[in-house]
Every structure is written in C-alpha cells, then in structure tokens.
Amino acid sequence: MSNPFYNNHGPFKISSIFQILNLEFNKSYKDKNINDIKDLITSNENDITFFHSKKYKELANITKATFCITTENLKEILPDTCKPIIVKNVLLATSTVTAKFYPNSISDNFDNTANLIDNTFFKDKVRFGKNVLVGENVSIGSNCMIGHNTIIEQNVSIGDNCTIGSNSIIRNTLIGNNVKILDNCVIGKHGFGFFPDKKTNIRYPHIGIVIIEDYCEIGCGSTIDRGSMSNTIIGKNTYLDNQIHVAHNVKIGENCIIAGQVGIAGSTILGKNVKIGGQAGISGHLKIGDNVDVAGGSGVIRDIPDNSKVMGYPAKNIRDFLRENK
Known about the structure:
By secondary structure, this protein is mainly beta. It folds into two domains: 12-105, Udp-n-acetylmuramoylalanyl-d-glutamate--2,6- Diaminopimelate Ligase, Chain: A, domain 1 (3-Layer(aba) Sandwich); 115-324, 3 Solenoid (UDP N-Acetylglucosamine Acyltransferase, domain 1), CATH 2.160.10. Helix content is 9%, strand content 26%. The chain is built from four helices and 37 strands. An eleven-stranded mixed sheet has the order 8-11-14-17-22-25-28-31-34-36-37.
C-alpha cells in the first residue's frame, strides 16, 4: 500500500537527483522522469530504490525500479533494467532523495489542526471523555469510544467498534474494526532513524504509516513507530501486552501474542502465531517464522525458522539451551 497521507512532490528528472547527491550525471542514462522513491519490493518502472546490504540481494535481483542507489560492490546484483547510482553512503543518499520527494515527512511536530471533538461533527457520533482532540483528515467508524486527554492527530482512519484509551496519541495510522488501544499509547510517530554527525544528527524521513488490522489489542504504554520506506503492520487478532515497542517497518503476522516490555527493532518480520515472552528483544532486519515461541528474556539476533522454540541469548533451540544450562 502506498502512503495515503504524504504528498509526493515528484516527478523529478533523474539528472536533478544526481545533482542533489552532488554526483556527475551519467550521460549514458536517459534523463527520465522519476515518479517516486520506494523499497526494492514495491518499486515499479520509473521509480528509484536503494540497495545497501547483501542481505537483500534476492530482492535487488528482481526489483522493477529503473534506478537504484547502491555501492560499487553491490551494483552487479541489480537486473539489467535497473541502473545503479553509485554513492559512498547508501542510506544517507536515500534520505536526501526521500526528503526531495516528501519534504513534509521529516518533522513530527504537534498537530496544530487538532480541535476539541466537541467542536467537530464527531461529537454526535463517538462516545468520548474530557479534553479529546481530533485533527484533519480523520475518519472514525460507528460504535467507537475515545478516552480522556487522547489526541487523534491528522491522517488517521479508525474502523467500527474500536476503543481508544486515555492519554494516547495517534497519527498516520489505519486502524481496522474491533481494535482496542489501551491507555498511554503513542502510535504513528516517526521511528528512531537518523545519521549521527558530530555537529547535528541528520533525521531520516519516515514516509510509511502504521496499519493495525481487525481484532487487535495494543497494551498500555506501547509505542508503534510508522514505517520509514514501507509500512509498520500489526496483523489481525494480534495482542500486544503493556510497554511494548514496535519499531519502524516491523511487520507482525496474524494471531501473535507478545508479552510486556518486548522490543522489536526495525524492519523485522514476524510470521503468524508467534508467541514472545516478556522482556525479550528482537534485533532488526530479521525474519521470524510461523508458529515460533520465544521465551521471556531471550535475545534474538538471527532468523528463526518456522515451528521453532527458542530461549536465551543468543536465542537458540530451547532443548539445547536447557541441556547446556543444567
């Protein structure tokens, strides 16, 4: 799903993209219009993408993008239909190009369009507590409740039969039907994406959104960051306990149960029916298969295949862990 909220300021000539990257334009390339910047999977012809790690070589090999920001060492993996743009720092260059297409995606200031719900047409449609604010481009389905001091900032869609707790902030989020979001949650703010610099850190634009599918529950004090290039997704009938952090681009499958104080780092994918015990940590850019159990307090730093039960740090097969720690 493309982002329905941020306005794409493209198309731009590929020569102008070379220019903002301080690169000399390759005259063997036609000066085409580039419509958008997307990840390797979702990009199409006349889009630009990026490729920074061999971990994604299978996706890079089949990308449909016309141009790709990459390195000298990785360019040969790209298909002939995708022309490389060679840079030293792929992610920094990608950030620069993303900001050109989506200049409003960098800052995450408070929503000054938000108005008291009493002053909107939602006042006769929604049951709500005191001091509830609603921003622009918000839709709320039937039979919904919103608790005290909650702010539904701009660019939010809430389905039917949903409950939003008190003291929560939501923006850039699509929420399905029959979803419960408990108190003190922050959903849809930008993730922890920046490039360290001695003088000032450079913030990476986050143009994705959060998608919470039907029948989910999000526990108190949880934070779900919106995606950077793709979307952050919580699958149908998944339950998150209190004080959980889901980072940008994470995708959690259906029917998962995640206990309190779990942290899932960016761009990790969880399959269906995954169970994670309290205080476990999942590193970024991993793939956790279907029907996986992760014991509480574990540290997952490698991909986990389907139907596995793991424990410890680094997390390993639970029988091996118990045998080694008798």
